Amino acid sequence: MTLLKRVLLFLKKVQDNAAKTDVITYEMMQSWQHELLDLLKNENKVVDPEPIRKHLDGVLKKQLTRKSLRKNFKGNALNFTKARLTESSQKFLRERVMFSVSLIQHNREQQVNATLRRFEGWLSGVPTNSVSEAKEKPREAVKDIIKPLIKQSFEERRVLIDQGHKLSAAVNDAIAQDQGAICVEWHSHWQEANYNYRKDHKERDKKLFFYKDNYFVKNGYIKKDGIQYINDIDGFGQEPFCRCYGTYFFTLYDIPESYLTKKGKEYING
Ligand SMILES: [Zn+2]
Description:
Layout: H1 3-19, H2 26-39, H3 49-63, H4 66-72, E1 73-74, H5 82-123, H6 138-150, H7 152-178, E2 183-187, H8 199-204, E3 208-210, H9 215-218, E4 228-229, E5 245-249, H10 262-268
Parallel strand pairs: 1-5, 3-4
Antiparallel strand pairs: 2-3, 2-5
Helix pairs in contact: 1-2, 1-6, 2-5, 3-5, 3-7, 5-6, 5-7
Zinc ion is lined by residues 188, 198, 201, 242, 244.
């Protein structure tokens, strides 16, 4: 039986029972809530971390391919060892699995609570000691009551997608810092249909953001005027559902000359 059907039968029973009584007591309300909770058991089960770990591990594997690394990291060949990269990315993976499980668990609890709240609201309008039906008939009420649960799998997918982006961003950021990135070019998906982009992230599209602590940035190879620092803004995937990503640059040769000081230009012209 579908959830909708089960809850509908339950509402009808509650309505019938209410009609046979003078008042709805606290005990009656509590026992109905428990019964409804029982019906929602499947929707409120403990989150299994294993499929989440598998999903995020898949994201990671895709990201750590040579092709994908070449796309995100311009310039010199990266000289980290695969073992070191795997070690630090496993750490990020564990972190993201933990957050995903926790977020999904709280979502489920919230949705079940919202359903109970909606049921209570409906119940408060059910007539007692009467042959008439509730003002809002069970068939009309049921969809509204279980609405939070209908959205559940959609919400859970969104959490996984978001955590996947955060994982990618954390791994890229670790590689960039480890390898001494000079700057990163921001990419926003603002042109993608149906993507609810952030206005300030759209503004950043295709712009360069420099690392304050980088040797070349600190030592006068890069102009100070009019440049922006990655250290001063929220990073990739930090804001909820941000899907922006970066392309990282590690050598002065890959940076447009307009950003270079005289010293910087002398450096690349040997
Ligand atoms: Zn963004």
